[in-house]
C-alpha cells in the first residue's frame, strides 16, 4: 500500500469512527432502493466486520454465494440475568429470497441463541422464583407480618382462549352476540377449573382473593412470610405486586377527520368500555346520556377527568361533539387506583359486551427496570388474545419527567398485544407533546415500539362537571387514548361485528391508516410510533377503498413464508401495509421477548425484494413506501422464530387513491 492510499484509508477509518461515536445507539433509518425506509438497529463492534462474518458463516453452512446474501436486520441482544450478550442477524438471499438467522459472540463466533435465552430464564428463576422483580424488591424490605397486595397468575387451563369464528364469517348480529356470549361463558368455566381449587387453598391459609373473571388471575392481600408458600402451589404461575395507578392527564374531531366520517353516516355504533381511576362521571351533564356506570370499587363523588374522557368519545354537545356518538358505554374503575380492581372491572366490561376498552390510566414502574411482568402486562395481553378484546392504553405523561425515568411508559402500557397511544401538542402542523411517554421496554433487543400511534390530546375541550357542562380540561395521553377508542368504534361499525372481534386486524387497520406523520420517519419513529391516527383513511381501509384488511389463525406449524396479500399498485402511489399478532403471558421468556418473531416482506411485481419490516421484539410490523414500478406487489409474513403459537394475526393496508 503506497503512502497516499494509506493516508486515504486512515482518514476513512477516522470518519467512520466519528460517525459511530456520534450516532445514538438504538435505531437507524437506512434507505432501500427508490426511497423505501427499512428499520435497522445498529451494531457497534469496530474491531470486527460482524456483517461479513455473519454472511460468511451462512454462505458456508448453506452452500450459497456470499455475494447473494444481504443483512436486512441486526441488533445486539442483552441477557440481563445471565449477563450474556449476542449479536443477532437476519439475512436474505437476494437470488432465492430465502431467509436466514444467526447469532454471534462479541468475538465473531457463532452462538446458540436459544441456549442463551434458556440460560437467562434459568438465572431469572434462580433469583426471583415465581415472584416478579418489583415484588421481590418489596419483600427484601418488608416485615414478615406485613400485608402486601398482589396479583396472582394461575396456570392457564385448557379452554381459556375463546374460540373465534373464522375471519369474515357473516352472521346476523343477534346470532353473533349469542355466539360471543356463549364463548365468554365457556372461557369463564374453563378458568374456574383452576380458580376454584386455588381459592380453596388460599382459604385454608386464611386468605380471600378476588378472581378476574375471564382470565386466570386473582388479587389478594398476603402477609410477606406466606407468599412463598402460595408461590409453591402447583396452580400458581407467577405473583406480581399490585400497584396503584393514576389518571394520565377545540375538540379533535376536525384534525383527525372524525367528523368527516360521521358525515358519511358512521357514528361509532359499538359497545365500548371506559375504565378509570378515582371518581365517577357526572350524571347531571346533559351532554352525556345513556351509559352504564358500574358502582364497584368507585368513589361516590364525580370528577372532571372521567367526565372529560367520556365526552371525547360520545359527547352530544353541538360544538364539542364526541367522535363516536353512537357508542354504547360501560364505565367502571377503582377509587383507589388499584391495578387489581381496574383489571377486575376490565373483565367485567368484556363480560357486559365491550368490544374495545379505553384505559386512560397507568402506574409508574415500581422496579428500577422496565421489564415486562407476566402478572401485570401479561394480564392485559391475555385479555386481548383470549377474549377477543381490543385494549387501548394511554402511553403515560412521563416524557419530561425527571431522570432516570424520563420518557418511561406508564405501566402496563408496554404490553405487547394492546394498542398504546401517545399525545400530540396543539400545534399546526402537528408536533408531539414533550410530556408524552415514549421509551421502549427493556426487551432483549430493545426495539418493541411503543406507542404505536398518537392522537390529539392537548388543550382539550370536553364535557365537565359543572354548568355550562363543557370547557377546557387540560392535556394528557388520557385524552389521546379515547380518540383511538372512538376510532375502533367507527371502524367496527363500518367493518362489522365479526371483524371487530379480531383486535389484531383492528390494530393493523389503525396503524396502516395513521398517515399523519408527526415527527421523524413515517414509521418506526421514536416518539410517535407509526404516525397520528386518521379517521378518514381508517374508514377508507374499513370500506376497502383502494385498501384492504383480513385476519387468520397463525401457529408455529405455518410455513416459513406465506403470502398475506397481493395488491395491484399503480406507478408512483404511496402504500402502507401493517400486520399485528399476539403473544401470551405463560410463554416462558415473556418478560424479554414475545413467543414469536414474524417479519413482513414486500416483493416487487418481478418477484424481487422491495422492502421489509423486521423488528425483533415487537408484535407488529409496518412498511410505508412509494411504488416505482406498477403491477402486483406481494406482502409476505416470514417466520423468523416461533417458540409458541401467536394464535391470531391481522393485517391491513392503505393505498393512496
Strand content: 25-35%
Percentage of residues assigned to helices: 25-40%
Name of the CATH first level of the largest domain = Alpha Beta
CATH superfamily of the largest domain: Peptidase S8/S53 domain
CATH topology of the largest domain: Rossmann fold
How many domains? 3
What is the oligomer described by this structure?
A: single chain
Largest sheet: number of strands, sense, barrel closure: 7 strands, parallel
User: What is the arithmetic mean of pLDDT?
Assistant: 88
Based on secondary structure, the structural category is alpha+beta
Number of helices: 15
CATH architectural designation of the largest domain: 3-Layer(aba) Sandwich
Strand order within the widest beta sheet: 12-13-11-14-16-17-18
Radius of gyration: 25 Å
Ends apart, CA distance between termini: 57 Å
Describe the model.
This protein has 657 residues and is α+β, with helices and mostly antiparallel strands. It has 3 domains: 96 residues, Nuclear Transport Factor 2, Chain: A (Roll); 113 residues, Alpha-Beta Plaits; 303 residues, 3-Layer(aba) Sandwich (Rossmann fold), CATH 3.40.50. It contains 15 helices and 28 strands. It is globular, with a radius of gyration of 25 Å.
Brief overview, please?
The protein is α+β, with helices and mostly antiparallel strands. It contains 15 helices and 28 strands.
Which keywords apply here?
Alpha-Beta Plaits; four-stranded antiparallel sheet; 28 strands; 3 domains; seven-stranded parallel sheet; alpha+beta; Rossmann fold; Nuclear Transport Factor 2, Chain: A; 657 residues; single chain; disordered N terminus
Amino acid at each position: 500500500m503506497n503512502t497516499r492510499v494509506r493516508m486515504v484509508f486512515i482518514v476513512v477509518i477516522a470518519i467512520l469512527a466519528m460517525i459511530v461515536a456520534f450516532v445514538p445507539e438504538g435505531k437507524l433509518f437506512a434507505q432501500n432502493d427508490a426511497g423505501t425506509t427499512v428499520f435497522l438497529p445498529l451494531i457497534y463492534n469496530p474491531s470486527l466486520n460482524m456483517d461479513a462474518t455473519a454472511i460468511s458463516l451462512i454462505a458456508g453452512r448453506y452452500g450459497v454465494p456470499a455475494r447473494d446474501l444481504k443483512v436486512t436486520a441486526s441488533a445486539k441482544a442483552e441477557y440481563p440475568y445471565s449477563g450474556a450478550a449476542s449479536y443477532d442477524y437476519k439475512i436474505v438471499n437476494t437470488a432465492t429470497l430465502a431467509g436466514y438467522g444467526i447469532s454471534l459472540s462479541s468475538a465473531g463466533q457463532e452462538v446458540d441463541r436459544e441456549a442463551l435465552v434458556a440460560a437467562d430464564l434459568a438465572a431469572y428463576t434462580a433469583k426471583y422464583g415465581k415472584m416478579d422483580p418489583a415484588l421481590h424488591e418489596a419483600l427484601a424490605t418488608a416485615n414478615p407480618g406485613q400485608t402486601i397486595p398482589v396479583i396472582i397468575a394461575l396456570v392457564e387451563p385448557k379452554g381459556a382462549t375463546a374460540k373465534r369464528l373464522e375471519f369474515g364469517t357473516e352472521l346476523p348480529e343477534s346470532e353473533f352476540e349469542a355466539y360471543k356470549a356463549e364463548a365468554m361463558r365457556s372461557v369463564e368455566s374453563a378458568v374456574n377449573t383452576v380458580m376454584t381449587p386455588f381459592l380453596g387453598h388460599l382459604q385454608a391459609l386464611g386468605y380471600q382473593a378476588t378472581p378476574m373473571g375471564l382470565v386466570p388471575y386473582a388479587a389478594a392481600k398476603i402477609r410477606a412470610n406466606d407468599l412463598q408458600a402460595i408461590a409453591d402451589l402447583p396452580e400458581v404461575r407467577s405473583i406480581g405486586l399490585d400497584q396503584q395507578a393514576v389518571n394520565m392527564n377545540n375538540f379533535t374531531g376536525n384534525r383527525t377527520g372524525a367528523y368527516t366520517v360521521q358525515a358519511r353516516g358512521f357514528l361509532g355504533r359499538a359497545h365500548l368500555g371506559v375504565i378509570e381511576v378515582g371518581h365517577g362521571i357526572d350524571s347531571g351533564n346533559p351532554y352525556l346520556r345513556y351509559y352504564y356506570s358500574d358502582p364497584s370499587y368507585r368513589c361516590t363523588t364525580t370528577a372532571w377527568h372521567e367526565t372529560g374522557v367520556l365526552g371525547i368519545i360520545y359527547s352530544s354537545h353541538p360544538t364539542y361533539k364526541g367522535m363516536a356518538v353512537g357508542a354504547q358505554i360501560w364505565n367502571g374503575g377503582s377509587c383507589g387506583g388499584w391495578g387489581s380492581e381496574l383489571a377486575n372491572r376490565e373483565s367485567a366490561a368484556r363480560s357486559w359486551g365491550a368490544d374495545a376498552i379505553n384505559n386512560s390510566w397507568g402506574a409508574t414502574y415500581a422496579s428500577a427496570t422496565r421489564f415486562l411482568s407476566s402478572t401485570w402486562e401479561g394480564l392485559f395481553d391475555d385479555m386481548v388474545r383470549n377474549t377477543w378484546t381490543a385494549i387501548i392504553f394511554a402511553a403515560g405523561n412521563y416524557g419530561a419527567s425527571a431522570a432516570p425515568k424520563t420518557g418511561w411508559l406508564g405501566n402496563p402500557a408496554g404490553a405487547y398485544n394492546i394498542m398504546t397511544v401517545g399525545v400530540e401538542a396543539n400545534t399546526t402542523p402537528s408536533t408531539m407533546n414533550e410530556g408524552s411517554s415514549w421509551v421502549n421496554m427493556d426487551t432483549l433487543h430493545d426495539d418493541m415500539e411503543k406507542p404505536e400511534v398518537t392522537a390529539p390530546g392537548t388543550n382539550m375541550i370536553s364535557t365537565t362537571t359543572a354548568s355550562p357542562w363543557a370547557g377546557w380540561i387540560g392535556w394528557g395521553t388520557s385524552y389521546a387514548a379515547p380518540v383511538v377508542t372512538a376510532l375502533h368504534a367507527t371502524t367496527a361499525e363500518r367493518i362489522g361485528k365479526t371483524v371487530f372481534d379480531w383486535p389484531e386486524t383492528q390494530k393493523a387497520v389503525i396503524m396502516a391508516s395513521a398517515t399523519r406523520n408527526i415527527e421523524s420517519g413515517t414509521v418506526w419513529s421514536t416518539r410517535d410510533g407509526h404516525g397520528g391516527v386518521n379517521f378518514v383513511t381508517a374508514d377508507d381501509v374499513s370500506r376497502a377503498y383502494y385498501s384492504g384488511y383480513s385476519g387468520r389463525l397463525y401457529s408455529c406449524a405455518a410455513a416459513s413464508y406465506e403470502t398475506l396479500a397481493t395488491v395491484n399498485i399503480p406507478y408512483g402511489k404511496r402504500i402502507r401495509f401493517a400486520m399485528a399478532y399476539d403473544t401470551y403471558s405463560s410463554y416462558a421468556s415473556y418478560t424479554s421477548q414475545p413467543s414469536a418473531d414474524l417479519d413482513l416482506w414486500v416483493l416487487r411485481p418481478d418477484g424481487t425484494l422491495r422492502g421489509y419490516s423486521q423488528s425483533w421484539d415487537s408484535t407488529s410490523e409496518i412498511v410505508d413506501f412509494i411504488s416505482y414500478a406498477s403491477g402486483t406487489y406481494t406482502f409476505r409474513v416470514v417466520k423468523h422464530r416461533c417458540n409458541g403459537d401467536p394464535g391470531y394475526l391481522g393485517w391491513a393496508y392503505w393505498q393512496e387513491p
